Amino acid sequence: MTIVDTPERRQLRELTRAFVTKEVLPYLDDWERAGEVPRSLHETAAKIGLLGIGFPESVGGSGGDLLDSILVTEEVIRSGGSSGLIAALFTHGIALPHMVASQDDGLIERYVRPTLTGTMIGALAITEPDGGSDVAGIRTCARRDGDHYVVNGSKTYITSGVRSDFVTTAVCTNLPGSGSLSLLVIEKGTPGFTVGRRLEKLGWHCSDTAELSFVDVRVPVANRIGPEDTGFLAIMQQFATERLSLATQAYATAQRCVELATRWCRDRSTFGRPLASRQLVRHRLAAMHTRAEAARVYVHDVAERVAAGEPVVTEVAMAKNVAVAACDFVVDAALQLHGGFGYLRDAEVERHYRDARILGIGGGTTEIMNEIIAKGMGL
Ligand SMILES: Cc1cc2nc3c(=O)[nH]c(=O)nc-3n(C[C@H](O)[C@H](O)[C@H](O)COP(=O)(O)OP(=O)(O)OC[C@H]3O[C@@H](n4cnc5c(N)ncnc54)[C@H](O)[C@@H]3O)c2cc1C
């Protein structure tokens, strides 16, 4: 099964492609050097309805479901964008869903609507310096004090953490490491909340990544998402969407690299003949295309099942691993086929090669996905 093509979805693809061509491609190299995308890009994307895809109109979104979000991600990368751009521009895809699910009107008015109009930027902070895979082991704590929580701790590797106006933050509301977590929305500018460091990375250069510090930060109880101690469940419920987005970034990056490598191998001649005329090269391109296509079809199948409300936690983990493995294989082969040029900043495959490395780490590592799959097998 694959995502059903409708006239609306074809229009959404065209809208996304036009946005990337006009608003992204001329500037992406500059943003990569600057280490972030401008706020104005969020506003532009919001104005044409792209930022709100996958969020209901009742909270300020543009409507559509998970499958539409996947199509946007796919098209951004296939049009010459990058997974780094997706991380930077669509961070709200991980920062907002818990608030939307909680149906808390106050939080929706203060954070969800302004973010979907592009005037606010949000981030999601779960990972801590002591570890990211063990979510239940979070040590950043929130102690209740009247109408406030007092938060102490630190977070790291937080996407859009430098630019964000608020951070959906996982905190321990019981004994540290007990797994009794809650989610608090913490605003920039709250005394004691600081961005410690902008982190330098292998890839995703246009996406800012931060270390965050909380020292006696007073956060209103009204900024808690859902009831106290329900944060772990809320985080796990939203992981499916994040993991499928990362899986989409992986197969779309692979598809884009197949296109780039195929074009290169047609144009480049060695020993008097185009590379694409050599059987070894043709078979390599065929294997790359096969891996990318198989990953795309499987991710679409699992996404359809998630959108239909099926409990497919194991399949989501398998989809992420399948797509990441395909992507790793393809970006490596695509760079190799480009020869020395593939290693240069001027080559688009060079960026995809670096950007792709995070996809098997973020949103739960390949090893953690394997743990989930093993559990699903009854092991
Ligand atoms: C660019 C970037 C952006 C990110 N954005 C965000 C963000 O926006 N918000 C956020 O909260 N986090 C974010 N992260 C953090 C990311 O989710 C974590 O890095 C990831 O979950 C892994 O956690 P860790 O780095 O602490 O590794 P660890 O948990 O310390 O794991 C280290 C290694 O051990 C392996 N391992 C761990 N446990 C086991 C086990 N039981 N069995 C076998 N192997 C195991 C892991 O797979 C990994 O290979 C980001 C990271 C990066 C690099």
Descriptive report:
The protein is an alpha+beta fold. The chain has 13 helices and 10 strands. The strands form 3 sheets. Strands 1-4-5-8 form a 4-stranded mixed beta sheet. Strands 2-3-7-6 form a 4-stranded antiparallel beta sheet, with no helix packed on it. A two-stranded antiparallel ribbon has the order 9-10. Strand 4 and strand 5 (181-187) form a beta hairpin. Helix 9 (231-267) runs antiparallel to helix 10 (279-307) and helix 9 packs parallel to helix 11 (313-337). The mean pLDDT is 97. It binds flavin-adenine dinucleotide. Residues 123-127, 131-133, 157-159, 201, 204, 209, 358, 361-362, 364-365, 367-368 line the site of flavin-adenine dinucleotide (FAD). The site of flavin-adenine dinucleotide (FAD) has 21 residues, from strand 1, strand 3 and helix 13.
The helix/strand series, from N terminus to C terminus, equals HHHHHHHHEEEEEEEEHEEHHHH
Oligomer: single chain
Q: Roughly how many Å is the radius of gyration?
A: 21 Å
Average pLDDT level: 97
Poorly predicted runs: none
The proportion of strand residues reads: 15-25%
- Percent of residues in helices comes to 40-55%
Number of helical segments with 4 or more residues: 13
Separation of termini?
A: 29 Å
In spatial order, strands of the major sheet run 1-4-5-8
